[in-house]
Amino acid sequence: MSEPLLRIEDADRVRTITLDRPKALNAFNEALYDALTDALLEAAEDPAVAVVLLTGGGRAFSAGTDLVEMGERIANPDFEPGRHGFIGLIDALEAFDKPLVLAINGLGLGIGLTVIGFADLVFMADDARLKTPFTSLGVAPEAASSYLLPRLIGRQNAAWVLLSSEWISAAEAKEMGLVWRVCEPAALMPDAHRAAAVLASRPISSLREVKRDMRAPLRDEIRRARERENDGFARLMGGPANAEALAAFAEGRDPDFTNLPPGW
């Protein structure tokens, strides 16, 4: 019997969803993409849920895509994707029309950062760290982050986040406008739930209308950005840079991109 991948609790019309693959630092494999997508779809339809609060169990918010499974996907032509997969999760996040609050604990890599583009309020523990490791993995951005991050934090901040693959501290994330509040670790969940409960005390119909109106001007650009990114990811995944990055991960070393073919 497979272990549950999420913990779900309801209080004050707030549904708290906790990613629960702590041994894998809540890295997203196909099963977790499916589980979170289903949870968001269910919360969207549940009339008793006004707000969703998303956090991670254990030492991490999310370590991003499961690199072991990424390697298997590249190596195995018969790899079976999930029912929703990564694209299904991003569709669910983009369509989610109730407030989404994040409480970022520990590490947030890849989707553990780019999910911020779809959130309405973001809380972050002061000892947490974020990064998008796309260039260190030899791949392209994801989740419309090439559009949403420049809009959220400005072009140069977004360029550093997306191009450098460097860690971003909680203080830096707050200064950039990437997160709304920075909290002591012990206060993270109480503070995030308190704000979520304030939102949840308002009429769901009004919350939905405000969110729809705020998101409406972005939808076409999000779709176009995702198409560009998905095309770039497909072209780069399994290429020389990505192969070196995955080999380095498997061997426990830093990748060396200095001897790639010209242009890579």
Mind explaining what this structure looks like?
Helices cover 46% and strands 16% of the residues. It has 264 residues and is of the alpha/beta class. It has a single domain, classed as Alpha-Beta Complex (2-enoyl-CoA Hydratase, Chain A, domain 1), CATH 3.90.226. The relative contact order is 0.14.
SSE topology:
Elements: E1 6-11, E2 14-19, H1 30-45, E3 51-56, E4 60-62, H2 67-75, H3 85-95, E5 100-104, E6 107-109, H4 111-114, E7 121-125, E8 129-131, H5 145-153, H6 155-164, E9 168-169, H7 170-176, E10 181-183, H8 188-200, H9 204-215, H10 219-236, H11 240-251
Parallel strand pairs: 2-3, 3-5, 4-6, 5-7, 6-8, 7-10
Antiparallel strand pairs: 1-2, 8-9
Helix pairs in contact: 1-3, 5-6, 5-10
Provide a short characterization of the protein structure.
Pfam families: ECH_1. The protein has about 260 residues and is an alpha/beta fold.
- Level-1 CATH class name: Alpha Beta
What shape does the CA trace take? globular
- Helix coverage percent of residues? 40-55%
Order of helices and strands: EEHEEHHEEHEEHHEHEHHHH
Q: Return the CATH architecture.
A: Alpha-Beta Complex
Characterize the biggest β-sheet: 6 strands, mixed
Structural class: alpha/beta
InterPro entries: ClpP/crotonase-like_dom_sf, ECH/Chromodomain_protein, Enoyl-CoA_hydra/iso
Pfam family, one: ECH_1
Main location: other
Keywords: Isomerase, Peroxisome
